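Researcher: Here's my situation. A collaborator sent me these components and asked whether they could plausibly form a single complex. I don't have experimental data yet, so a predicted model of the whole assembly would be a useful starting point for our discussion.
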Amino acid sequence: MTTPVSVLRLPRGPDPNSRGFDPSSPRFIALCAASIPTSAASAADPARLQEEQRARSVLRESFLRCLLSMSNKRVQFHMYEKVKVEATFGASDIDVLNFQVSDLQTPIGVQKEALIRCQDVISYCFEV
Amino acid sequence: MAMRQTPLTCSGHTRPVVDLAFSGITPYGYFLISACKDGKPMLRQGDTGDWIGTFLGHKGAVWGATLNTDATKAATAAADFTAKVWDAVSGDEVLTLAHKHIVKSVSFTQDSNCLLTGGNDKVLRIYDLSKPEAAPLEIPGHTSAIKKALWCNGDQQILSAAEDKTIRLWDRTSMEAVKTLSFDTSVSSMEYVADGEILVITYGKTIAFYNALSLDLIKTVEAPASINSASLHPEKDFFVAGGDDFKLYKYDYSTKEELESYKGHFGPVHCVRFSPDGELYASGSEDGTLRLWQTAVGKTYGLWKCVLPEDLGAENSEQLYTTAPEIKA
């Protein structure tokens, strides 16, 4: 008569809401460089580093505010392969990988609900 | 009291898992990457199977995946005609290397500076990752799609297996084939064991072991079913194999004796690899799951807990549960 080996718990599965790579994990904190590395000049000079960091914060904040102000507005997306589409912007996911849009106007018809993959987008514009 | 193997199932993929690879042992443990036809390779903690992240970006089935030794970089090969290099800590895509056909295999050099790729256009390519815009070195020669390409012999040579039923050993400097092995049938998998310079090859129902430098045959073992992948234990006392009958087989390397076979997967096993510490092996299957299996069944390791009979009634066993052999994450 054999007994199956006991387990403490089951392996954790994927989080349906994110792509993972938890930024609060010890490994991430220890090893991750900023996504845009500090310029060489700033790395050398602490005063310049502060200024650069302030500039980064300003840029990030204005990007996030831009996303907020786009909510429910018609936005034109310029994408690769000379694709230009227009849609009502809904939301962005946390990693800015996808935009959720409605009434996406495409050459083959209007898509009521769609996800636009951010890496396919070159630029977008809308009226404030 | 004999213990029965409890495999740990890692779910999350939605299509067959076709390749998997472990990193080396890092200060944060070791890691496992899985390549899947759903186009979304995943990184997991190697000793527990816990999901860490999914590399998003490929637009087609991912056929090959690998990690560098310290698990800071990952590389993937896909049906979208690209190989991609990723930051394995942040999950960000670092580089996309365009190819002219489906890419099947990727391999880092020990120093992580170069990436070897191989695929359906039959050409081996070596990319210098510090100069990604520079054209790769190209090594033509195979007459059919390349299935697997690996660095060997201190990254001075390359081993490649292709649908042309050959395995070729190439010299990196001269870019020429120094040895060729021919088979009657296509090789289904290849594993290179640096310590001891052993090459593990599978074809048909055979698991074959060769000297990786001379390509001399060491021994062959016949399995009861068609084998798709095999892996040699780091201490070379066991090897494991899996294939079309859905089972995992464990053999004694010295005596070639079949020691155990395990049922669990619901589809053919495509890939199997020992962890760098040899304490477990992972298998990837057509059923879309990865399973982790203990080398020493019943030992306390990772999520497995050794429970002595007298402890089963005690208070501290409340957190444990014995399970039926089939459990899913």
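Model: Some features of this prediction you could bring to your collaborator: Chain A touches chain B through 29 residues (CB under 8 Å). The domain at 71-126 of chain A is CATH 2.30.30.100 (SH3 type barrels.).
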